[in-house]
Amino acid sequence: MTDRLPDEAIVDGIEAETLADAREEARRAKRRAVLEAGARLFVRLGFDRAKLDDIAAELSVSKRTLYYYVASKDDILFQCNVLAYEAMEPALAVCADPAIPPLDRIRTLLRAYVRVLADDFGACLVLTQENQLTPESAAVLRDNRRRLDRMLRDLIEAGLADGSIAPCEPKFAAAALFGAFNWLPHWRDPAKQPTFPEIGEAFLDIFLDGLAAKNR
Predict the structure, then answer these.
(1) What's the whole-number average pLDDT of the chain?
(2) What is the per-residue pLDDT for 11?
């Protein structure tokens, strides 16, 4: 038997790796489709009413097929929340820059937040109750919520320190801001006009004009 040439072995290895990458990419795309369908139905029907059978029907696949990509309905909800928080990461990186004025960073944070809330993954953030998740998943969700809350409080405190924000209790100011934004998915269809970002800008003008120190 003739030994294979080294170059042939290299080519075969590259082709096998490319095929494996293509399969993994296809699997990620299908998993993403499952998560998108799940988020869409959770928002439309509510988590408790939406069933895995509904998600499978939405995708025209069998319920058994879903288990190739997710572990359970709870897992879909958890992963939707994870994707929503991941979409916030670029804004959080900007908000960590102390060279940017605190009020500008607050706008950056909440503009990014309202953009996330405008899609189904983001709506899951505020429509999800912790008791709908496993204790482990609920703990992750709780930590992510605390991270956003802490970021906003820190920015308010920075504004208090440099005099750009009028005296207030950061905890209450952060609760008021997030409270207003978090209700958007409850009462507003993101497809309607004005859009979520437009409403968000109006909220920011109202709140930040109220937060800003009057002598600036």
Answers:
(1) 88
(2) 59
190-203 pLDDT, tens digit per residue, is: 888 999 999 999 99
Superfamily of domain 1-70: Homeodomain-like (1.10.10.60)
Q: How many helices (H) and strands (E) does the chain have?
A: 10, 0
Q: Where in the chain is the domain with CATH 1.10.357.10?
A: 78-216
Report the pLDDT value the prediction gives residue 215, as an integer from 0 to 100. 64
- DSSP characters over 65-133: HHTTT-S-HHHHHHHHHHHHHHHHHHHHHHHT-TTS-HHHHHHHHHHHHHHHHTSHHHHHHHH--GGGS
Query: 115 and 199 in contact (C-beta within 8 Å)?
Result: no
Helix (H, G, I), strand (E, B) or coil at 165: strand
CATH architecture assignment, domain 78-216: Orthogonal Bundle (1.10)
Residues forming CATH 1.10.10.60 domain(s) in the chain = 1-70
The structure tokens 């269809």 sit at 189
* Cβ atoms of 89 and 131 closer than 8 Å: no
pTM of the entire structure?
0.83
